[in-house]
Amino acid sequence: MAFSLINPNDNILVVGDGNFSYSYDVANYIKEQNGNGHIFTTSLDSIEVLKKKYTNVVTYIDKLKELNHTVVHHIDATNLRNTLANSNFNQNSKLYDKIIFNFPLAPLTKTLDDVKNSPSPDVNIRNRYLIWQFLREAATLLTKSAKSAVLITSKTCKPYDRWRIASLGSNCTQKVPFNISKFNHYTARKVNVVENQKRKRRKIDFSINDAITFVFQPHIVLSRSNSNSDCGKKNAVCPTATTSSTTTTTTASSDNVIKSNRKFFCNLCSIYTKTQFSLDEHFVGRRHKILMGTERKWKLFLTNLKANNDKLPTYQYFSK
């Protein structure tokens, strides 16, 4: 995530911040810019659990508090409003300019009870639900201004690309490359590793060189040509998405090169081909079939959720 996405005067909510090194870097940025922004940074785990996971977590928490920022535990990304309201600081009616969730990852199921209590036995559906529900909750906690946004940073390689993050929330307006070198303290690590494994424990650090920050701005009104796109602004990394049967005006500057090929585009996989024959070959290929299978499972999952909750929206997905 680029610091350019954050205004030093923003009220910021950071969700699931591990050892709080990310929030500490943002706090230093605000201080360097002489801003008056405030950070409310949170974790799902208790401080006791965090101490077991991270050797320096207490140091970062103390530094954040010295800079007059707020640290809160037991905050659930899928139940933000209630868990924030039940926390130890006054959350009632508080809204944020930026709500940030870096590298969201659903916990691994360790026991039979975990499987029964998880939203789905499918790991891709569990992660989609985590992000989708977070975006729904976060949208209600944003200030209704043009600058307000929900920022989600994630890897884009397999299996993260199967979550189709840009399709899970309203108005994904940008995709910005994440540059870890801009941070002095922040380190990302994989924490959903089953403890006490009998086989050799895997290395838990992981590369984030291909990570992207998805910017959601649910309160702005996109132009009609961008209303169905995964990301609509001119400085976005991705081009405006279109259906395979239509051609629209390009919005990203990089689209000029492939403007003539826009009708040979797979919305589901965000892939362009040069000919209709190549596109048809892609539709029967392994990658497309895997994503189609995940889409069908996701649609069925949300259909079942909606059956138990009439307030849930009908999910619109690409059928091909």
Structural overview:
This protein has 320 residues and is α/β, with parallel strands linked by helices. It folds into 2 domains: 3-233, Vaccinia Virus protein VP39 (Rossmann fold, 3-Layer(aba) Sandwich), CATH 3.40.50.150; 239-320, no CATH class. It is 28% helix and 12% strand. The protein has helices at residues 21-32, 47-53, 57-66, 80-85, 112-117, 123-139, 276-283, 286-308, and strands at residues 11-15, 38-42, 70-72, 98-102, 149-154, 172-177, 212-216, 265-266, 271-272. The strands form 2 sheets. Strands 3-2-1-4-5-7-6 form a 7-stranded mixed beta sheet, with helices on both faces. Strands 8-9 form a two-stranded antiparallel sheet. A hairpin with a 4-residue loop joins strand 8 and strand 9. The radius of gyration is 20 Å and the shape is globular. The relative contact order is 0.11. Residues 193-205, 232-261 and 313-320 have low confidence and may be disordered.
Topology record:
Blueprint: E1 11-15, H1 21-32, E2 38-42, H2 47-53, H3 57-66, E3 70-72, H4 80-85, E4 98-102, H5 112-117, H6 123-139, E5 149-154, E6 172-177, E7 212-216, E8 265-266, E9 271-272, H7 276-283, H8 286-308
Parallel strand pairs: 1-2, 1-4, 2-3, 4-5
Antiparallel strand pairs: 5-7, 6-7, 8-9
State mean pLDDT (0 to 100 scale).
78
Please identify the oligomeric state. single chain
The CATH H-level superfamily of the largest domain is Vaccinia Virus protein VP39
- The outline comes out as globular
Strand order of the largest sheet: 3-2-1-4-5-7-6
CATH T-level topology of the largest domain: Rossmann fold
Number of E strands: 9
Q: What proportion of the residues form beta strands (DSSP E)?
A: 5-15%
Number of domains: 2
Q: How would a crystallographer describe the biggest sheet?
A: 7 strands, mixed
The number of distinct helices, counting runs of at least 4 residues, comes to 8
CATH C-level of the largest domain: Alpha Beta
Low-confidence stretches: 193-205, 232-261, 313-320
Structural class: alpha/beta
Order of helices and strands: EHEHHEHEHHEEEEEHH
The amount of helix comes to 25-40%
Q: What value does the Rg take, in angstroms?
A: 20 Å
Q: Please name the CATH architecture of the largest domain.
A: 3-Layer(aba) Sandwich
Termini distance? 31 Å
